[in-house]
TrEMBL record:
Signal peptide: none annotated. Residues 23-155 form the Activator of Hsp90 ATPase homologue 1/2-like C-terminal domain. Belongs to the AHA1 family. This is Polyketide cyclase. The lineage of its organism: Bacteria, Pseudomonadati, Spirochaetota, Spirochaetia, Leptospirales.
Amino acid sequence: MSNESNETFNPELDLVLERIVEVPVELVWNAWTKPEQLIHWFTPAPWKTIDCRIDLKPGGEFYTMMESPEGTQFPNSGCFLEIVPLQKLVFTDSLLPGYRPSGNSFMTAFVTMERIGKATKYKALAKHKDPETRKQHEDMGFMDGWGAALDQLVAFTKNLPK
């Protein structure tokens, strides 16, 4: 069940990327929820996503393994908090699968999708625990990185077999 108040933007703690992409919402949803698709676009090149596990249910696993151009691997473990098919995914690294506390807390992400004809209104909201973590994410290139990943998602989905 959706709760709009959970998506409130706080400029001191949050980062947001919003765009309308010329891809049907079903393709955006599949790109986010199918590991075999997500590994193709999730990490801005020249970085790669080399592994992904998705257990699409609240409390289910959302795991990615990113690899730098130098070959250093960065695992990211978390769990889904909310899933509204074709509309919303909420996940966090604060919790592991089964809602087990992770001991890490970088962000909680809200990815929302809204059908606009044959296009999708896409929004990625990253909530952080404090202004320092938000700044760290911004300095890591949130806007460019998440924007590049979205561009890759669009390119990937447009090249899927019809």
